[in-house]
Amino acid sequence: MPDPDLGHHGDAEATPGLVDLAVNVRRAPPPEWLAGPVAAALGELARYPDPAPARAAVAARHRRPPDQVLLTAGAAEAFVLLARALAGVRRPVVVHPQFTEPEAALRAAGHRVDRVLLPAGTGFRLDPALVPADADLVLLGNPTNPTSVLHPAADIAALARPGRVLVVDEAFQDSTTAPGLPGEPESLAHRTDLPGLVVIRSLTKTWGLAGLRVGYLLAPADLVDRLAAVQPLWAVSTPALAAARACASPVAVAAEREIAAALAADRRHLVDRLAGLPGVRVEGVPAASFVLVHLAGADRVRLALRERGWAVRRGDTFPGLGADWFRVAVRDTATTDAFVTVLADLIGPGRATH
Description:
Layout: E1 19-21, H1 32-41, H2 52-61, E2 69-72, H3 74-85, E3 92-96, H4 101-108, E4 114-117, E5 137-141, H5 153-157, E6 165-169, E7 197-202, H6 204-207, E8 215-218, H7 221-229, H8 238-247, H9 250-275, E9 281-282, E10 290-294, H10 298-307, E11 310-314, E12 325-329, H11 333-347
Helix pairs in contact: 1-8, 2-8, 3-4, 3-7, 9-11
C-alpha cells in the first residue's frame, strides 16, 4: 500500500461552487470585538509587529507567565519550529490517525518518524501503553483531527516524562464541552507541572481566521526560547497579533463557550442523521467540529458527492485510515439535512431515516 499523501489538506477539496464540508473552519463573520481591532491594526502596518501585548494576553488567559508563550503564524508554523529546533531527538513518534502536518514537518527537517496507529475497533481512543517508552518526541491531537475523539487529559499527561517533549495539538479544544464541567474539560493548556509539555493552539477554526495565519504554543520557558531562536523575525503580522489579543479576552472565552454549546447541538443532529443511513458508521464519540464516517466505498461516494455539489474530506491521506473513510464538517441543521438527503440517495435511494 502506498504511503498516504501527508501534504493533502481539505482546502484542496473545497472547490468554489461546492458546499464545503471538507474544511473545519467556522464560516460566521467575526464579531465586532474581533473585527474592530484587526481593522484598526491596518493603520499600524508601517511599524514592525510587537508581539508583547498579545503574548501577555494569551499568557493571562492560560494562567502562565508570558515567557511560556510563543505566537506563531498559525499552528502549522509551530510544527515546523519544533521540527527544526529539536533536531537532536532520536525517536520522534506521531500518534495517528492525526493531522498530517506535524509528521510532514518532521520528515521535511530530516527526522525519521515512527507511527503509532490507534485502531478503529477501540474508537481511536488513546492507549498510552502503545507509545514506545524510548520515544523522546511524541505528537498527538486532542481532540484529534480527523477522528474528532477527545482523549482524557489524564491519559495524555501519562505520556509526559523527563527527557521527552510531548506535543499536544489543541487546535479544536476551544470547541469542546462536557456536561456539568467548565469549557475545554480535557485541555492541558494550564498545566505547567508536566515536563516537556508543548500545547499548540489555533485561532483559525472557531474564529474563521484561516487567511490571517495566527496561533500560539505554550511550553516551558527554556523550550520557548529554543523554538523562538529558529523562528523568522516578525513572523506574526500586526493584524494577526491584534486578533490573538482579542481572542484571549474574557469576552472571547465566553463567546467560545456559547459557540461550543451550539456546535454540540449541531453535531448531535449530524450524528443522528448519519446513524439513520444504511452502512454508515460514525466512529467513536465525536467532540469537535467534524465527524469521521466509515462507509464501504467511501472514496467512490465522495466523488459522487462532488458531482452533486458537495465536498467532504477524503480519508485515505490519513495514516491508519483508508479509502472507506471520509470526514464531514459540522454545519447548521439545514445544511446537514440537505447533505444527508443527497448522501442517502447515493448509497440507497429512499432508505434514509430521521
